[in-house]
Amino acid sequence: MEREPRSGAQALVRDHTVYACVMGSRAFGLATEDSDTDRRGVYLAPTALYWRFEKPPEHVEGPLPEQFSWELERFCALALQANPNILECLHSPLVERVTPVGAELLELRGAFLSLRAHTTFVRYAQGQRRKLEADVRNHGAPRWKHAMHLLRLLGSCRDLLRTGVLEIGVGAEREGLLAVRRGEVGWPEVDARMRRLVEEAEAAVSGSPLPAEPDTGRVEEFLVRARRESAASWDPPATAG
Fold first, then answer.
1. Strand 38-43, strand 67-71: pairing
2. Is 175 exposed, middle or buried (0-12, 13-18, 19+ CB in 10 A)?
3. Are strands 95-98 and 17-23 parallel, antiparallel or unpaired?
């Protein structure tokens, strides 16, 4: 039986992570010798912690370098909103930890996908593109690494809308994208590629196999079940007689 949950944000990550993966360039197939290892995870805060005035955190940095984790409910909420970073976490090929609850979460990957992805992916891309344009105006060139990742994201969005499947690995596009990162492709050509990918994503919406909305009910059933199982396993500490 589970005893009283340990306090401390990082203890939640150490003791209650249900899913952990590597993201960033290593997951996308774009890693180079100097690439960091970006770790992302999901923890299920024990239900008993929500019975207190001070609630558990929705996200935690660490304890490892470049590590960031979300509490399960927050992660699911962001995924239902089609947050690009969150959806991609569920499709990482580099999984480091999966508990039974984490396995159920992965089985729900399709429930999170919907046409909302078109809005969120493109809106995020537009914000990042404005930053690149500012770099060009102020410094004569964009941050090429960011330009590379933006092209990758837009291609992933287009393909998701076309197929209904989110693939985060770049496959055969690797060398072309790394050429962008090295600054071997001029900004006008990179900008033109971004615009073309946005147009192709928009064109894919009308015939997309994705549903208009995610399956919120199915996700909520999973979350409630996980909370109930956590509550049932908690064994309160004995009190002094």
1. parallel
2. exposed
3. antiparallel
Domain span at residue 135 reads 116-205
State CA 227 to chain mean position distance. 22
Q: Do 220 and 101 belong together in one domain?
A: yes
177-192 pLDDT tens trace: 999 999 999 999 999 9
Is residue 17 domain-resident?
A: yes
CA 91 to chain centre: 8
Helices 216-233 and 72-80, axial angle in degrees (round to 10): 180
Return the number of other C-beta atoms located less than 10 Å from residue 127's C-beta. Answer: 10
Residue 167: helix, strand or coil by DSSP? coil
Residues 192, 139 within the same domain: yes
Q: Are residues 169 and 219 both part of a single domain?
A: no
The model's pTM is 0.90
Task: Give the residue from 93, 222, 112 showing the smallest Cα distance to 164.
Answer: 112
CATH, residue 90 = 3.30.460
Task: Work out the number of other CB atoms within 10 angstroms of the CB of residue 222.
Answer: 18
Tokens, residue 4:
């009283």
13 and 97 together in one domain: yes
Terminal-residue alpha carbon distance, the chain: 22
